[in-house]
Amino acid sequence: MVTPTVKNMEKIKNSSALLTNPSHSGTPKLEIKDVGKIFRTKSGETTALEKTSFTINEGEFVTILGPSGCGKSTVLRIVAGLEEATSGQVLLDGKEIHGPGPDRGMVFQSYTLYPWLTVKENITFGLKLNGVSQKERDDMARHYLQLIGLEGFEKHYPIQLSGGMKQRVAIARALANNPKILLMDEPFGALDAQTRNIMQEVLLKAWDESKKTILFITHDVEESIFLADSVYVMTARPGRLKKKVPIALERPRDFSVKGSVEFAHYKEELLSLIRDESLKAIQ
User: Can you give the residue ranges of the ABC transporter domain (predicted)?
Assistant: First the structure.
């Protein structure tokens, strides 16, 4: 096991300053205020999410990490307007969210492309609905095809693409609509390990350029560290925020950072936090 040096340990320790002095300053982009969720059925009630509060600043990349069934996807669906909170409120740019809206882009784990549309048509579908001109749509499609590395595939249909390529198109489509925040619900969960690693780098490349605010759900510890400015760890159900872990790894990042001493330290800390909660979930 890699042993952190005194210098590296001090650097990581100092990253705690991000809790009170975030690098992404200014008015919070997204505010989760005492949000709770109870699912009611004929057989009774299940508390999926206890009162949870946190904020995400403009341009920040936040991952939510937790054991299965902890309510992390419930948080995302409430932010997306696909679920209604039992208590609390969600504010985007200071305005309370009520239902879905084009100001929030969503990328799911399943491939949600329109099978009858080409790659280019999928990317520009929302733009066309909003009356954007053909030239602007063409320019936008060209830009995002280059960004996600799918130049030459614009006339292909989803059935002709691999899983990783489909998710690239889904990300490009979400970004092309220029949402205020991008919500991602374990988008790489169904991919093989190698493709998943590549997709993480593709996403960071897109984020480095767009600087979109991103809320990303995952159960993968390495993924959460590699992508995020901050990792929010949730408890076992009923879910609530257990700890915020700021990630002070330098940007831009590539795959090599996963072999660093700093990365190993974060991984050890998060694995310990998640293991405790996973054991509670099983029990």
Answer: 30-261
